[in-house]
Write the structure tokens for this entry.
Amino acid sequence: MKTDSGFKFNNRNYIPIPVELTSSLLRDIDSFEEFKCTLRIFSLIFSLRPKRLWISFEELISDPVLLESIPVSDSEKKTEVIIKSIYAAKKRQTIILREKDKNQIQNSIILINDKISNELLTKKDIGKLQDGLDLEQTDFQPGQKRESNIYRLYEDNIGQMTPVLAEELKLAEKNYPNLWIEEAIIEAVKNNIRNWKYISSILNRWQIEGRTNGESTRYSKKSERESQLRRAQKFRDEFINKKS
């Protein structure tokens, strides 16, 4: 988060970065675009672990953070820069690029070139990986945190998990109790507004209205309960009107 005095980093909101990326690779990589692309690949993949160890080419070239970091205005040229950076990182052996169809980068997946990814590729077929195969905990490093059920709840009720959404959910976990997130997803489903923006708005409203300690605000009196429902309906209507 950027503040008036600079960036304020959350001490818990970190991803692991190989020491080579801050030493030998930092010295050798002479392209800002390749370095940005490499960092973003690490960030997106680690945001998805332990669900999966890879991202698709399509996910990378549609990532808004990476796109905004490429200093060209034309969208086709941005894609060309990203593709060039991917192949440079592959040649440098910082990433692994696997194409389902030969010479078709559109159907490829990208992995970090580490022991875990290489072991995965010896066990799993790329086609199965692209179909969204869930991986067992044994495929990952010891001590890695098992994914929270909010990710499964989101995918089962709202839509497919993407690297950007995974980052949003991880950030939400830092800012809100898991119970809030679960209940916000359920409320979004009840209101038939199935998108993260609406869920995030619900969480923000609850925070402003004073939910504490991860407990839902429950009203015992009928009038108070009706008032709560009216506020929820008003919030839903305002959100829909903003979209239109």
